[in-house]
Amino acid sequence: MIELEGVPELIDPVMVAAFEGWNDAGDAASTAVAHLEREWKGEVFAALDAEDYYDFQVNRPTVFMDAGVRKITWPTTRLSVVRVGGEKPRDLVLVRGIEPSMRWRSFCNELLGFAHELGVELVVILGALLGDTPHTRPVPISGTTSDADLARRMDLEETKYEGPTGIVGVLQEACTHAGVPAVSLWAAVPHYVSQPPNPKATLALLNRLEDLIDVRIPLGELPEDARAWQVGVDQLAAEDTEVAEYVQTLEEARDTAELPEASGEAIAREFERYLRRRDGGGPPAPGERTRPPKPPKPSGENVDDDDSSED
Fold this sequence. Notes:
The chain has 9 helices and 10 strands. It has helices at 28-39, 50-53, 104-118, 148-153, 167-178, 199-213, 222-238, 241-258, 264-277, and strands at 14-20, 43-47, 62-66, 69-73, 78-84, 90-98, 122-131, 141-145, 157-158, 182-190. The protein is globular and about 55 Å long.
């Protein structure tokens, strides 16, 4: 059993996780969790043992100087907690690290042990992938889950992906086997401008997370960073005729595909999101917060090694 000392009893806790590596195109997902830690001054209360999960020839430790003393930072996954105030306060358990090199099932079981001890009611895993999407359009965000009831209540897709998977897919499947409600949010990053950072994708992930868990997230300088990023990519594309033509092709394909979505219901939904995010707006969402069922204590068995849960 994992024993946590110094961590207060949490209010309606949600675990939000992101991992650097294969599931983190443009560093969009890991940067989103880092933003939450920074804005809400998250306090680290636990770290997984790096020796158990990482190949240090793949993810090397770094040396730094602290007051003239050489120290080493080891690659690992850390957990912090933040409290979101307001009329309906709630706590977020933030998980940020690197996709492990080995023992993925044990890695997921250890995170689920923390989730059980802290009374986590929902796990949200952030990811980012490379896609055929133009940088000039809103970043596509897909929300998926393996839970049919959760998909219906939270307006998500029930995942049917088959193929290679990363730690995001494995952790979501581990949550399913443990009876813990879990959602994956994926941002599509333009493959022709994949180098980090991508503040526009990070901002889109945070906006979708805000809608999903009914909290108001302080965005800081992210909106301005996202605008500056798009202007910079516009300038680079304008200097290359082939790239500019390719972007135009992606724009036309995207606009054509989204025409059926320009319904009254879709427009009303976007307008409600705009009103919630306005400065001085009302509560995050009308009505009561929808809570998923509280998860049972996970069994001692290992997670099934089925990789069919990628989103």
